[in-house]
Write the structure tokens for this entry.
Amino acid sequence: MPYSNIDPKDMILRDHLARDRTVLANERTLLAYIRTAIALLASGAMVIKIFPDNRALFMLAVLLLVCGVVIITFGIWRFITVAVELKRLYERNPEKQIK
């Protein structure tokens, strides 16, 4: 069943808690992307600093740096996409909170 068929007014406490867990999972996923990107960026910078004269390792370091930037960009894009979708689904509820 598509989520667009669910009316937020009919949501019970369990549904609201599930939504909160989904939001937190989205944030944890963003942090995992950031952690991975930082590790790749640090590895690339370290290889460049330690082996500046080795051409093959320099190319590997550049690849690591590019991968780090791509991963952090993708992670941020994915976080925003999921957050907007969750907000769009939940904003149909005029109350927005459990009373």
